Each structure stands twice: as C-alpha cells, then as structure tokens.
Amino acid sequence: MVSYVFPPPPVAALPIKGSDALFPVRRIFCVGRNYAEHAIEMGSDPTREPPFYFTKPADSVVINGAVTPYPSVTKSLHHEMELVVAIGRGGRNISVADALSHVWGYCAGLDMTRRDIQNEAKKTGRPWDMGKGFDKSAPMGLLVPAAGIDPSKGKIELKVNGKVTQTSDLAKLIWSVPEVIANLSELVELAPGDLIMTGTPEGVAAVVRGDVLEGFVEGVGDIRTKII
Could you give the CA distance from residue 140 to residue 81 in angstroms, rounded to a whole number? Predict the structure, then answer.
C-alpha cells in the first residue's frame, strides 16, 4: 500500500453537461496570440509563425457559476475569452487529419491574466508563469461531448456587466483546432485529461471586483463568473 506524507490533493475536474460524471483535468495548455486582431492589439505581427504555448495548473480551474477571486500583486486583471478543447485520447505526433478524433469535448473558458505582471515579464525576457498560471485563473463552463460540434466556426463572445467586450468567430483562429493539437503533440505527448485553451480574440480588457463576466461559444456553451 502506498503511503503519503500528507493526503494527496483532490483531483481537479470539470462537470459535464447532462451527466453526473466529471472530466479529470491533467494539464492545461494555452495557445498564445491565435487571433490576428488580438495579436495586433498586443503589439505583434499576426502572421502564421509556429504557435507557442504557456500553461496553467490543473487546479486553476474555476467551475462555471463560481466566483473568481481578484488575484494578489496586480492592478490589471484582464479577461481573455476562449474555446477550450478537452483531450480524451492521447498521442504523440498526431496528424492534422486525425486530430479531432482525440478530442473528448469542448467548453467555453476564460484565460484570466495579470497583464501588468505579464508585460513586465515580456520586457525582461522572463517566463509568463506568474502572469498566467496563478490561482483560480481559468474559469470554465460545462464540458460538452465533441459529437456534432464543428470547432472551425461559430461565434465567440464575452460580456462584462452586460456589455459586449469581445466578439469574433472561431473561423478567425490563425491555427485551427486540428493544427494546434497536431503541433502540440510534437512537443509533448498528449494524454486524456489535457485541456487546450485555443486563444482569445481582440477586445481583452481589465476587470475589477464586482464585475460579472458572461461568455459563450456558439454550439458549445456558456461561462459565467463574478470577480470578487
């Protein structure tokens, strides 16, 4: 029998729409600057350079409807609305043609960002970890099975206190979902439970305590959280 020096932490998991089962979260990968207009607003050239990635801890997930605490050591917490891909079948060097067969489901999600910390890291050439991978930085909606969902198109939108701040279409992704899965699987061996946040459209902006964030991805679902 295995003995631990203290009890292992609970497994991070996402609720599944229409089911009592949970989807265990293994790792969270995030694609940077994957919409042209967002790349421009971040001061980058929106060409098809190879995608790049950063990560968040599995336990940074905030379940749909739960509150999101305003994090410490920042004066500029930004929202980034995204389509999230949940991997159900792992693999290495997955082909673009086969990539979607590795997807278990999808959900709407928010990549919350300590923008001031991220920007300082960019200036100094340091990692983004503390700007992106902090506690409770990944609010996510209910997970829905992949069957019948086309991740190549569909409206993606976020409202803050009822006002639209981000709106675009999945068709504007620079790197499509199959291309991202294929590319990422060359860098790491994907495994069941991995989540991929596929990038955010333009319109990212700061939020404050008391703000209510409500987003959706057409054909996938909603995400709602309040900043406290």
Answer: 10
Give just the sign of the alpha carbon dihedral 97, 101, 102, 107: positive
The pTM (predicted TM-score) of the whole model is 0.95
Judge contact between 107 and 218, C-beta under 8 A. Answer: no
Pick the closest to residue 105 from 148, 145, 147 (CA basis).
145
CA distance linking residue 32 with residue 203, whole number of Å: 15
154: its two tokens: 């569909």
Per-residue pLDDT tens digits for 35-71: 877 666 666 666 777 899 999 999 999 999 999 999 9
Chain position carrying tokens 């098809």: 48
Give CA–CA dist 88/23, Å, rounded.
9
39 vs 45: CA distance, rounded Å: 6
Cα 102 to Cα 94: distance, rounded to the nearest angstrom: 9
Q: Considering only CA atoms, which of 77, 55, 58 is closest in space to residue 140? A: 58
* Kind and range of the H or E run holding 29: strand 28-31
> SS3 string of 160-196?
ECCEEEEEEEHHHECCCHHHHHHHHHHHCCECCCCEE
Whole-Å CA distances, 119 to 31, 44, 62, 112, 179: 17, 13, 24, 14, 28
- For residue 114, list its beta bridge partners: 77
